[in-house]
Protein backbone atom coordinates (compact mmCIF):
# COMPACT_ATOMS: atom_id res chain seq x y z
CA UNK A 1 0.00 0.00 0.00
CA UNK A 2 2.85 2.35 0.85
CA UNK A 3 4.51 1.56 -2.46
CA UNK A 4 1.25 2.13 -4.29
CA UNK A 5 0.86 5.47 -2.52
CA UNK A 6 4.39 6.50 -3.50
CA UNK A 7 3.75 5.62 -7.13
CA UNK A 8 0.60 7.74 -7.06
CA UNK A 9 2.57 10.66 -5.57
CA UNK A 10 5.28 10.29 -8.22
CA UNK A 11 2.67 10.26 -10.99
CA UNK A 12 0.98 13.35 -9.52
CA UNK A 13 4.33 15.12 -9.28
CA UNK A 14 5.18 14.21 -12.86
CA UNK A 15 1.82 15.53 -14.04
CA UNK A 16 2.27 18.76 -12.08
CA UNK A 17 5.77 19.27 -13.47
CA UNK A 18 4.60 18.46 -16.98
CA UNK A 19 1.94 21.11 -16.74
CA UNK A 20 4.53 23.83 -16.21
CA UNK A 21 5.96 24.91 -19.53
CA UNK A 22 9.60 25.70 -20.01
CA UNK A 23 10.49 29.30 -20.89
CA UNK A 24 11.15 29.67 -24.62
CA UNK A 25 12.43 32.33 -27.00
CA UNK A 26 14.54 33.93 -24.27
CA UNK A 27 15.99 37.15 -25.69
CA UNK A 28 17.75 40.23 -24.46
CA UNK A 29 17.02 43.62 -25.93
CA UNK A 30 18.86 46.73 -24.90
CA UNK A 31 18.66 50.31 -26.07
CA UNK A 32 20.87 52.99 -24.53
CA UNK A 33 21.57 50.54 -21.69
CA UNK A 34 17.93 49.98 -20.84
CA UNK A 35 18.04 46.20 -20.90
CA UNK A 36 15.03 43.91 -21.05
CA UNK A 37 14.86 40.13 -20.88
CA UNK A 38 11.77 38.57 -22.51
CA UNK A 39 10.48 35.05 -22.94
CA UNK A 40 7.39 32.99 -23.73
CA UNK A 41 4.83 31.77 -22.79
CA UNK A 42 2.68 34.00 -20.59
CA UNK A 43 2.20 32.23 -17.23
CA UNK A 44 -1.26 31.10 -16.17
CA UNK A 45 -1.22 29.34 -12.77
CA UNK A 46 2.53 29.21 -12.24
CA UNK A 47 5.38 31.64 -11.72
CA UNK A 48 8.75 32.30 -13.26
CA UNK A 49 11.76 32.82 -11.07
CA UNK A 50 14.66 34.54 -12.79
CA UNK A 51 18.14 34.19 -11.36
CA UNK A 52 20.53 36.78 -12.75
CA UNK A 53 24.25 36.54 -12.35
CA UNK A 54 23.94 39.51 -9.99
CA UNK A 55 20.59 39.25 -8.32
CA UNK A 56 17.34 37.28 -8.03
CA UNK A 57 13.95 38.49 -9.09
CA UNK A 58 10.72 36.57 -8.59
CA UNK A 59 7.65 36.90 -10.72
CA UNK A 60 4.35 36.21 -9.00
CA UNK A 61 1.39 34.89 -10.98
CA UNK A 62 -0.19 38.32 -10.88
CA UNK A 63 2.60 39.49 -13.21
CA UNK A 64 1.32 37.98 -16.40
CA UNK A 65 3.92 39.68 -18.57
CA UNK A 66 7.10 37.82 -19.27
CA UNK A 67 9.89 40.32 -19.03
CA UNK A 68 12.43 41.63 -16.59
CA UNK A 69 13.99 45.02 -16.77
CA UNK A 70 16.71 46.74 -14.91
CA UNK A 71 19.14 49.58 -15.20
CA UNK A 72 22.30 47.56 -14.46
CA UNK A 73 23.50 50.21 -12.03
CA UNK A 74 27.02 51.15 -12.97
CA UNK A 75 27.83 47.56 -13.88
CA UNK A 76 27.49 47.95 -17.61
CA UNK A 77 30.83 46.31 -18.31
CA UNK A 78 29.74 43.02 -16.73
CA UNK A 79 28.29 40.13 -18.66
CA UNK A 80 24.90 38.95 -17.54
CA UNK A 81 23.14 35.67 -17.87
CA UNK A 82 19.78 34.60 -16.53
CA UNK A 83 18.23 31.29 -15.54
CA UNK A 84 14.45 31.27 -15.91
CA UNK A 85 12.71 28.60 -13.87
CA UNK A 86 9.01 27.78 -14.27
CA UNK A 87 7.51 26.94 -10.88
CA UNK A 88 4.08 25.64 -10.12
CA UNK A 89 2.28 27.43 -7.29
CA UNK A 90 3.16 25.33 -4.26
CA UNK A 91 0.94 25.20 -1.20
CA UNK A 92 2.54 24.75 2.23
CA UNK A 93 1.39 21.17 2.81
CA UNK A 94 2.70 20.07 -0.60
CA UNK A 95 6.22 19.44 0.68
CA UNK A 96 7.05 16.73 -1.85
CA UNK A 97 6.62 19.11 -4.75
CA UNK A 98 9.18 21.49 -3.23
CA UNK A 99 12.05 19.17 -4.00
CA UNK A 100 11.12 18.67 -7.64
CA UNK A 101 13.42 20.01 -10.36
CA UNK A 102 11.22 22.39 -12.33
CA UNK A 103 11.97 23.07 -15.97
CA UNK A 104 14.32 25.95 -16.55
CA UNK A 105 15.98 27.71 -19.44
CA UNK A 106 19.28 29.55 -19.55
CA UNK A 107 19.37 32.85 -21.37
CA UNK A 108 22.16 33.68 -23.81
CA UNK A 109 24.96 35.75 -22.26
CA UNK A 110 24.61 39.51 -22.57
CA UNK A 111 27.07 42.34 -22.14
CA UNK A 112 25.44 45.79 -22.32
CA UNK A 113 28.73 47.63 -22.86
CA UNK A 114 29.45 45.59 -25.97
CA UNK A 115 25.88 44.94 -27.14
CA UNK A 116 23.41 47.63 -26.07
CA UNK A 117 22.10 49.45 -29.13
CA UNK A 118 22.55 53.20 -29.33
CA UNK A 119 19.68 55.26 -30.73
CA UNK A 120 19.95 58.24 -33.08
CA UNK A 121 21.72 61.32 -31.73
CA UNK A 122 20.81 64.93 -32.39
CA UNK A 123 23.26 67.63 -33.35
CA UNK A 124 23.41 71.17 -34.64
CA UNK A 125 25.70 73.10 -36.90
CA UNK A 126 27.53 75.44 -34.60
CA UNK A 127 29.69 77.26 -37.15
CA UNK A 128 30.25 77.16 -40.89
CA UNK A 129 32.89 79.45 -42.29
CA UNK A 130 35.96 79.40 -44.55
CA UNK A 131 35.30 75.84 -45.67
CA UNK A 132 35.15 74.54 -42.11
CA UNK A 133 32.04 73.29 -40.29
CA UNK A 134 31.70 72.62 -36.56
CA UNK A 135 29.02 70.22 -35.38
CA UNK A 136 27.83 70.15 -31.78
CA UNK A 137 26.58 66.61 -31.07
CA UNK A 138 24.38 66.02 -28.00
CA UNK A 139 25.52 62.95 -26.06
CA UNK A 140 22.49 60.72 -25.40
CA UNK A 141 21.28 60.04 -21.87
CA UNK A 142 21.46 56.33 -20.98
CA UNK A 143 19.55 54.32 -18.37
CA UNK A 144 22.73 53.90 -16.32
CA UNK A 145 22.65 55.70 -13.00
CA UNK A 146 25.77 57.13 -11.43
CA UNK A 147 26.46 55.46 -8.07
CA UNK A 148 27.75 58.71 -6.60
CA UNK A 149 25.18 61.29 -7.74
CA UNK A 150 22.25 59.04 -8.72
CA UNK A 151 22.01 60.94 -12.02
CA UNK A 152 21.59 59.20 -15.36
CA UNK A 153 24.86 59.08 -17.27
CA UNK A 154 25.38 60.18 -20.88
CA UNK A 155 26.88 57.80 -23.43
CA UNK A 156 30.07 59.88 -23.21
CA UNK A 157 30.25 59.22 -19.45
CA UNK A 158 29.69 55.50 -20.01
CA UNK A 159 32.03 54.98 -22.98
CA UNK A 160 34.55 57.79 -22.43
CA UNK A 161 37.27 57.50 -25.08
CA UNK A 162 35.60 54.44 -26.64
CA UNK A 163 32.87 56.70 -28.01
CA UNK A 164 33.45 58.27 -31.42
CA UNK A 165 30.99 59.78 -33.85
CA UNK A 166 30.78 58.81 -37.49
CA UNK A 167 29.77 61.63 -39.80
CA UNK A 168 28.70 61.27 -43.42
CA UNK A 169 28.20 64.39 -45.47
CA UNK A 170 27.72 65.60 -49.02
CA UNK A 171 27.37 68.87 -50.83
CA UNK A 172 23.69 69.82 -51.16
CA UNK A 173 22.43 68.64 -54.56
CA UNK A 174 25.35 66.28 -55.13
CA UNK A 175 25.54 62.54 -54.41
CA UNK A 176 29.27 62.17 -53.67
CA UNK A 177 29.41 61.21 -49.97
CA UNK A 178 32.34 61.79 -47.65
CA UNK A 179 32.93 60.32 -44.24
CA UNK A 180 34.82 61.33 -41.14
CA UNK A 181 35.16 60.05 -37.60
CA UNK A 182 35.33 62.42 -34.65
CA UNK A 183 36.78 61.55 -31.25
CA UNK A 184 34.82 64.37 -29.66
CA UNK A 185 31.23 65.51 -29.38
CA UNK A 186 32.31 68.77 -30.97
CA UNK A 187 33.27 67.64 -34.48
CA UNK A 188 35.23 69.77 -36.91
CA UNK A 189 35.19 69.13 -40.67
CA UNK A 190 37.56 70.92 -42.97
CA UNK A 191 38.37 71.06 -46.68
CA UNK A 192 34.80 71.97 -47.61
CA UNK A 193 34.04 74.35 -50.47
CA UNK A 194 33.54 77.72 -48.83
CA UNK A 195 30.09 79.19 -49.33
CA UNK A 196 28.41 75.93 -50.38
CA UNK A 197 25.68 74.15 -48.44
CA UNK A 198 26.54 70.71 -47.01
CA UNK A 199 24.26 68.09 -45.46
CA UNK A 200 25.39 66.00 -42.48
CA UNK A 201 24.30 62.81 -40.71
CA UNK A 202 25.82 61.58 -37.45
CA UNK A 203 25.83 58.23 -35.60
CA UNK A 204 27.51 57.06 -32.41
CA UNK A 205 30.44 54.80 -33.29
CA UNK A 206 32.19 52.42 -30.88
CA UNK A 207 35.12 50.83 -32.74
CA UNK A 208 36.13 48.71 -29.72
CA UNK A 209 33.03 46.57 -30.27
CA UNK A 210 32.45 43.70 -32.70
CA UNK A 211 31.89 45.05 -36.22
CA UNK A 212 28.12 44.43 -36.37
CA UNK A 213 27.51 46.31 -33.11
CA UNK A 214 29.75 49.35 -33.61
CA UNK A 215 27.35 51.80 -35.17
CA UNK A 216 24.35 53.48 -33.51
CA UNK A 217 21.30 54.63 -35.43
CA UNK A 218 21.80 57.45 -37.93
CA UNK A 219 20.56 60.92 -37.02
CA UNK A 220 18.31 63.07 -39.14
CA UNK A 221 20.11 64.97 -41.88
CA UNK A 222 20.96 68.60 -41.13
CA UNK A 223 22.18 70.98 -43.84
CA UNK A 224 24.28 74.09 -43.51
CA UNK A 225 23.11 77.26 -45.22
CA UNK A 226 24.85 78.29 -48.39
CA UNK A 227 26.43 81.73 -48.20
CA UNK A 228 24.15 83.96 -50.24
CA UNK A 229 25.57 85.92 -53.17
CA UNK A 230 25.66 89.68 -52.95
CA UNK A 231 22.92 90.16 -55.58
CA UNK A 232 20.49 88.06 -53.52
CA UNK A 233 20.99 90.32 -50.53
CA UNK A 234 19.96 93.44 -52.38
CA UNK A 235 16.33 94.48 -52.46
CA UNK A 236 14.48 95.19 -55.70
CA UNK A 237 14.53 98.92 -54.94
CA UNK A 238 18.30 98.91 -54.54
CA UNK A 239 18.66 96.99 -57.80
CA UNK A 240 16.50 99.54 -59.71
CA UNK A 241 18.57 102.37 -58.19
CA UNK A 242 21.80 100.61 -59.19
CA UNK A 243 20.53 100.14 -62.77
CA UNK A 244 19.51 103.82 -62.92
CA UNK A 245 22.95 104.96 -61.78
CA UNK A 246 24.56 102.57 -64.32
CA UNK A 247 22.38 104.03 -67.08
CA UNK A 248 23.41 107.61 -66.17
CA UNK A 249 27.10 106.66 -66.05
CA UNK A 250 26.89 104.93 -69.46
CA UNK A 251 24.96 107.89 -70.91
CA UNK A 252 27.61 110.32 -69.67
CA UNK A 253 30.40 108.18 -71.14
CA UNK A 254 28.58 107.95 -74.48
CA UNK A 255 27.88 111.71 -74.61
CA UNK A 256 31.47 112.58 -73.63
CA UNK A 257 32.83 110.16 -76.27
CA UNK A 258 30.57 111.63 -78.95
CA UNK A 259 31.55 115.19 -78.03
CA UNK A 260 35.26 114.29 -78.08
CA UNK A 261 34.95 112.63 -81.46
CA UNK A 262 33.19 115.65 -82.97
CA UNK A 263 36.03 117.96 -81.86
CA UNK A 264 38.52 115.60 -83.45
C1 LIG B 1 26.78 72.49 -27.59
O1 LIG B 1 25.39 72.69 -27.48
C2 LIG B 1 24.91 72.71 -26.13
C3 LIG B 1 23.42 72.90 -26.16
O2 LIG B 1 22.80 72.08 -27.06
C4 LIG B 1 25.57 73.81 -25.35
O3 LIG B 1 25.16 73.76 -24.01
C5 LIG B 1 27.09 73.64 -25.43
O4 LIG B 1 27.72 74.72 -24.79
C6 LIG B 1 27.54 73.56 -26.87
N1 LIG B 1 28.97 73.31 -26.89
C7 LIG B 1 29.87 74.18 -27.34
C8 LIG B 1 31.31 73.77 -27.28
O5 LIG B 1 29.54 75.28 -27.78
C1 LIG C 1 38.64 63.96 -40.95
O1 LIG C 1 38.85 65.32 -40.64
C2 LIG C 1 40.14 65.63 -40.18
C3 LIG C 1 40.15 67.10 -39.79
O2 LIG C 1 39.33 67.88 -40.63
C4 LIG C 1 41.14 65.31 -41.27
O3 LIG C 1 42.43 65.56 -40.80
C5 LIG C 1 41.02 63.84 -41.65
O4 LIG C 1 41.87 63.55 -42.71
C6 LIG C 1 39.60 63.53 -42.02
N1 LIG C 1 39.47 62.09 -42.24
C7 LIG C 1 38.85 61.58 -43.28
C8 LIG C 1 38.76 60.10 -43.32
O5 LIG C 1 38.34 62.27 -44.16
UniProtKB/TrEMBL annotation:
Q: Name one GO cellular component term.
A: plasma membrane
A GO MF term: cytokine receptor activity
The Interferon/interleukin receptor domain extends over: 133-225
Q: Is Glycoprotein included in the keywords of this UniProt record?
A: yes
Q: Which UniProt keywords apply?
A: Blood coagulation, Disulfide bond, Glycoprotein, Hemostasis, Lipoprotein, Membrane, Palmitate, Signal, Transmembrane, Transmembrane helix
Intracellular or extracellular location(s): Membrane
> Which Pfam family name is an example for this entry?
Interfer-bind
Listed under GO biological process in this entry are: blood coagulation
Q: What is its main location?
A: membrane
Instruction: Describe the family membership recorded for this protein in Swiss-Prot or TrEMBL.
Output: Belongs to the tissue factor family.
What the entry lists under PANTHER family is as follows:
INTERFERON/INTERLEUKIN RECEPTOR, TISSUE FACTOR
Q: What is this protein called?
A: Tissue factor
Organism whose genome encodes this protein: Myripristis murdjan
Organism classification:
Eukaryota, Metazoa, Chordata, Craniata, Vertebrata
